[in-house]
Amino acid sequence: MDFKLTEEHIMIRDAARDFANNELLPGVIERDDKQEFPTEQIKKMGELGFMGMMASPEYGGGGMDTVSYVLAMEEISKIDASASVVMSVNNSLVCWGLDTFGNKEQKEKYLTKLTTGESIGAFCLSEPEAGSDATSQQTTAIDHGDHYILNGTKNWITNGRTADFYLVIAQTDREKKHKGINAFIVEKTWEGFEIGPKENKLGIRGSDTHSLVFNDVKVPKENRIGEDGFGFKFAMKTLAGGRIGIAAQALGIAGGAYELALKYSKERKAFGTEICNHQAIAFKLADMHVSIEAARLLVMKAAVDKDNNGNYDLSGAMAKLYASQVAMDVSVEAVQVHGGNGFVKDYHVERMMRDAKITQIYEGTSEIQKIVISRSIING
User: Fold this and answer.
1) What average pLDDT score do residues 160-187 get?
2) Does residue 375 surpass a pLDDT of 90?
3) Is 348 helix (H, G, I), strand (E, B) or coil?
4) Which among 122, 64, 52, 51 is positioned nearest to 306, based on CA atoms?
5) Interval 306-349: pLDDT, tens
6) pTM attached to this predicted model
7) Residue 320 needs a FRET pair 20 to 30 A away by CA distance; which of 27, 247, 295, 361 works?
8) Quick check: 139 and 128 in contact, CB under 8 A?
9) Both ends of the chain: CA-CA distance in Å?
10) Which of 75, 194, 363, 367 is catalytic?
């Protein structure tokens, strides 16, 4: 086993770190407070190649491996998890899904704009009655020959308003159950497509999360991804890779909170010495460091499995389950290390604690990850 990063990996990691500190850090507290989408920052991320890292160069992507992607995700997430979730959805769910399963015409029309950040994508699976149970799709797409008529509602959609293109999962034939589900590319400007109010969230408040409503939206048949009935498999394959991105986001939140706690502990004095010299704080820092390193190994293992074309369902689920728990634990302890200062916005860690929680929920709750893991180990 070789744990060393290549020169290219180090360059990508450092570029993401510099961008996060120079472009995302200024104003991150204000954007969180006002729920402002980081429009200019996301545009710059696209220009730097962070919005289509793993997509084919033929369609404007970076052609990078998953390890490069998670390294960049970690660094961006250390500073601004709202920006990193936009990056994650566009990379892991939308660009990767289109690049892997879309046809040439779809890639030329949509992917070329998504990889460069000219356009932003959204992934639309969750519904009021179909969150963890993705098979219970109530959104319908009725076949009308050369087009489908789309009706239904999607909930908790990241990039809900800012996206230009939406990958929508819908039920075409209810009798076939999950084999009757399809995936479609829907454009924002199409008649009958409505965007609901923005959700007022606990964390990742800079990203925009909306409900979407489809009222007799006409979707051309050429906008269906894959063969008829491929939609559920498309969603599961795409989410499996997306979980690696969210695991990297959780790892970044934990790392960012830890770095702030370590720095603060070396500056804050109590009882005549820096608080890092008190065993109560020193042991917290030790536990934080160990758990982050363990999470990093799980995330990298999942990324390598994906890059080696192996089965990454298990490793991705383990990475997300553990890294999201570490994000919660470390961010809570970072607030504790800061004492009263940790409870106010100026020190960042309270925001990180709020941002950490969603990593245990979206793209498969921790409970769902345990189902994936247990089935894998029981069934071999």
Assistant:
1) 97
2) yes
3) coil
4) 64
5) 999 999 999 999 999 999 999 999 999 999 999 999 999 999 99
6) 0.97
7) 27
8) no
9) 24
10) 363
